[in-house]
Amino acid sequence: MRLETITRLPQTQTHATPLLFIHGMWHGAWCWDEFFLPFFAEHGYRASALSLRGHAGSDGKIRGSTIADYVADVEQVAGAFETHPVLIGHSMGGFITQKYLETHNAPAAAILASNPHFGLWRGFGRVLRRDPRIVLKAFLTWNLRPVVATPARARWAFFSENFPEADLLKYHAKMNDESFRMFLDLLGLNLAHPKKVKAPMLILGAEKDTVIAPRDVHDTARGYGVKAEIFPNMAHDMMLEAGWKSVAERILNWLQEKGN
Asked: ∠ CA(103), CA(116), CA(188), 5° rounding?
């Protein structure tokens, strides 16, 4: 399957370990290319992001896709690297990262505002309280697009209240549908198992996240035997929010601490 991959190469490669970024629900590789890919390329890394099947410029269908399908997409792209890449996943991409690491080696992994390994019921409850009608429509149609169908809904789910309107509209226009079948995996059909993961983990969250609350991030970190770090005054899309650089710098410093 042809999967879109965006890669930024450094002028001088000072780090042998490549980075592979994995996006969350409704997004694509584009969300990493706004700031993160250029940032890490400037710091000497080969930085790549993939679009999962059916997302952005990738072939394949979203409808009916499972977490296992998305993990297979990561396997395909990661397998093309000469060395195992560091994985950096956001939201659903963080959960995919956890599932990938159950059966694959990686030098390290960072997950941002990740869906918890124990299930997405808390986040689902927050969306349900926000607008029960939207959740009902999603279940009746087996279609998650209604959750982010308007810019206002996307702002609530992903961005701060003061996020620039022009940027909100630009990013919302790029968003895809998302697999309802995969969502059932996140609720319980295919949960993650931290005890199977051997790679060092950096677990980050956002104070103002309306879906993946700091409590969820802390509980995920405990599952992996590490401490979570929460960024203040930041919403869910940590790679696009105004404070994105502080997140990127924390990952950069951590990678260098780990020798990657």
From this structure: 80
User: 242-250: which pairs have CB atoms within 8 A and are 24 or more residues apart?
Assistant: 242/160, 242/163, 244/35, 244/36, 245/35, 245/39, 247/112, 247/204, 248/35, 248/36, 248/39, 248/40, 250/202, 250/204
Outline where the chain has alpha helix (H): 30-33, 36-42, 67-78, 92-101, 121-130, 132-141, 151-158, 165-174, 180-184, 214-223, 244-257
Angle, in degrees to the nearest 10, between helices 165-174 and 151-158? 100
- Return the pLDDT at 186: 97
- Give residue 70's pLDDT: 98
Question: Helix, strand, or coil here: 20?
Answer: strand
In CATH, the number for domain 5-257 is: 3.40.50.1820
State whether the Cα torsion 171-110-191-216 is positive or negative: negative
Q: What is the pLDDT of residue 135?
A: 87
- Residues in the chain with pLDDT values less than 70: none
Distance from C-alpha of 142 to C-alpha of 145, rounded to nearest angstrom? 9
Residue-range domain boundaries for the chain: 5-257
Burial class (CB in 10 A: 0-12, 13-18, 19+), 232: exposed
How does DSSP classify residue 228?
-
